[in-house]
Amino acid sequence: MTKITSAITSSDDRAFLQPRFVDTREASRITGIPVSTLVTWRSRGGGPPFYKIPTNGRVRYEVSSLLTWIRSSGEMISTANYSQVITRDSLISEECKLTQSKRGSDPG
Questions:
Q1: SS3 87
Q2: CA–CA separation, 30 and 60 (whole Å)
Q3: What pTM did the predictor assign?
Q4: For the chain, what is the radius of gyration of the CA atoms?
Q5: Enclosing H/E stretch for 76
Q6: Element (H, E) at 22
Q7: Could you give the CA distance from residue 89 to residue 91 in angstroms, rounded to a whole number?
Q8: Torsion angle (degrees, nearest 10) of CA 54, 57, 58, 62
Q9: Nearest to 94, CA basis, from 48, 2, 29
């Protein structure tokens, strides 16, 4: 038990265990939902959960909550083409492809 406790006491490990918060633009990038839609959903009481910082009014989304919301949202019909059904699995798959392509295009 001592080894496990000491293994997670470094500052790097503690930082990894902390929740990661992002602003609306980054939440939009992660979910693929336009910023304007996220803003509208917040004002109408929909969309993914968010936090509003009381001291400055800034909005933040927890990354793990965004991913959970995407996974639990089921199917979403594309407004551009009602015959196209976008499933949560296809959203996650596209996010993985984007991440992999960014890693592959890095020069260093």
A1: strand
A2: 13
A3: 0.54
A4: 17
A5: strand 75-77
A6: strand 21-22
A7: 5
A8: 40
A9: 29
71 token code pair: 């996974």
62 bridge partner residues: 21
Distance from the Cα of residue 70 to its chain's centroid: 8
41's tokens: 């959903």
Residues 6+ apart with CB under 8 A from 22: 30, 60, 61, 63, 66
C-alpha atoms less than 13 angstroms from C-alpha of 93 in its C-beta half-sphere:
5
pLDDT digits (tens, 9 = 90+) for 39-78: 999 999 889 999 999 999 999 999 999 988 888 876 555 5
Cα(38)–Cα(50) distance, integer angstroms? 10
